[in-house]
Task: structure prediction
Amino acid sequence: MTRYVSPEHHAALQARQLVARDFIWFVVRNRETGLPVTDGLWSDVGNISAQVINPDTGLPDMRDWYGSGTLVAIDDIPMVANLTVQNVRARLSQIDDHINTLIRLYDTKQARVEIYRGLFDPDSREMVAPAECRFVGFVDLVEIETPSENEEGGVTLTCASHTQEITRSNPDTRADASQRLRSATDNFFQDSSTAGQWEVFWGSQRGVVPTQPAPKKAKRFFGLF
Result:
């Protein structure tokens, strides 16, 4: 698998003068209004503003990131070039007020997740180039571990890659009412419920048109059928 590296990153990698930091971006939902709320965390101390490469546009995007131990660790991200669904776990601090607001106040079910890797110059403490996106997906599972005395707790998010969307089946039916929900003037299925009982005259034969056994039900994917 060939991976593009910006000239700035390539030069810093050749010089072996880099400090890597992770960034994770959430788009959660406000439970009261239903509106999306964005929030960013990074694996270092303090709050910063830093650029990332927007995975939707491919352009640099300046965002705000919260630090001071909010993002504890992110699993290794498999770099594959296929359509398999990848799962990545991110561990967050349970005792941080910012994390409690993000997880408990907002709705994180199927929230969009973007994970970036930023490379910093150890001398200037500045990123050598906007952080590159390494994962785009959705929050699949939220585990809040409340520890007993002298035990360790935390928040673990299991995130599934966006390729899971192609595994979703379409619950839509081949019915006139369903088809008209897409377009009020689309009458393609207007006779679907009665066509099987129509009688057709063909020479000396008359009666219901014979049909073939229905094939095994196949999944219909969003956007394909």
Summary: Helices lie at 7-15, 97-105, 176-182. Residues 170-225 form one domain.
